[in-house]
Amino acid sequence: MGAHASVADSPIGQYILEEFQRVKAESGSQTTAKSPDLDEDADARSASTHNLADRQVLFLNEIRNLRTPQDVSIDLNHMAILWKMDAARDGVVDSTELMGFAEYCNGLFKTYGSYDFKEYLQAHCVVDMYNDVFASSDYSLFSDWICRLVAQGERTTTFP
Questions:
Q1: What confidence tens digit (pLDDT) does each residue in 64-82 have?
Q2: In a domain, 156, yes or no
Q3: Residue from 82, 53, 74 nearest 148 by CA
Q4: 1 pLDDT more than 80
Q5: Is 5 helix (H, G, I), strand (E, B) or coil?
Q6: Domain membership of residue 113 as a residue range
Q7: HSE on the CB side for 31, CA within 13 Å?
Q8: Considering only CA atoms, which of 53, 50, 56, 75 is closest in space to residue 64?
């Protein structure tokens, strides 16, 4: 991912932000405004801040349309990678989270190099997800997140 100390200070940082805007713009005409579900803060953020013109997040279907740099292979369909990318656990990814994930990847890339980077990244993300959810026995954290992720900003109803 480069020899720069920080992704944000490198050409790759600009590429990531441009890619974020490209995907957002391409899907903007296909997305409809959603009404918020006020039961949960994360659901409200996921739903209410995603108006067509001014939303600053990507949904799952948009995340999967991101193009990684040529020298980096990342499986954006891998559950643990999505978990790591969505630091707020609200089912969407904003540009700050995307840059944070890129910084994380840059650190791993510096440590392991390009050989088997994809596998190392997946393994680290799986371990992080395991520690966040299963080691702490906070299973609802994962189930709530996966519901928000697949809802893609649509209003949801929680049944007792």
A1: 999 998 888 899 999 999 9
A2: no
A3: 82
A4: no
A5: coil
A6: 11-151
A7: 28
A8: 75
CA 49, 53, 57, 62 dihedral sign is: positive
Counting the structural domains of the chain, the total is 1
34 phi/psi in degrees, rounded to 5: -110, 150
* Predicted pLDDT at 37: 47
Between CA 139 and CA 61 the distance in angstroms is: 24
Question: Could you identify the residue written with the tokens 């039961």?
Answer: 39
Residue entry with tokens 């992704």: 7
List the beta strands (DSSP E) in the chain. Answer: 57-58, 93-94
The pair of structure tokens assigned to 23 is 């995907």
Alpha carbon 17 to chain centroid distance?
13
Which of these, 76, 70, 73, lies nearest to 58 by C-alpha position?
Answer: 76
